[in-house]
Known about the structure:
- By secondary structure, the protein is an alpha+beta fold.
- It has helices at residues 4-13, 17-54, 169-175, and strands at residues 61-64, 67-70, 94-104, 126-128, 137-141, 148-155, 163-167, 182-190.
- It contains 3 helices and 8 strands.
- It is rod-shaped, with a radius of gyration of 32 Å.
Amino acid sequence: xxxxxxxxxxxxxxxxxxxxxxxxxxxxxxxxxxxxxxxxxxxxxxxxxxxxxxxxxxxxxxxxxxxxxxxxxxxxxxxxxxxxxxxxxxxxxxxxxxxxxxxxxxxxxxxxxxxxxxxxxxxxxxxxxxxxxxxxxxxxxxxxxxxxxxxxxxxxxxxxxxxxxxxxxxxxxxxxxxxxxxxxxxxxxxxx
Length: 192
């Protein structure tokens, strides 16, 4: 037989239907948030994985001063560049290397260490190339105006898109690339 004491005790130990419904709804909300969080984590992981796969073919980068340089090297003979018609016929002491997009270093990088160890001077006729040996001299010709300049490779790069060479400000000025910022150029390695 149930006494009033047992009934009172049972009323306090069992939650009401409203309380059970409230707990259920809270758990349902927490479950939905957990599923959303798991989905977001999976999406971010997928994006990072895809970006890491895309970077798998890029050269290893090392920090040099305020810039970066590649530690991947390749002999000059293995460079696979398209061979367009040069704007000027190279002299016997030059070896045509093809053409590509050029850009230039701004004055804001003045004083930073280059891959060769020297400080970058935007007023010197220097350039960055991904694979040519440091110290190589290259004739860079702007086919739009026929202007050319000889630069010394003292840094690594460029690492933006399909650009093949980064010129110093002085070199870019010599061939008329300052206004456009980038431009198509023909390259010829000087043979010494």
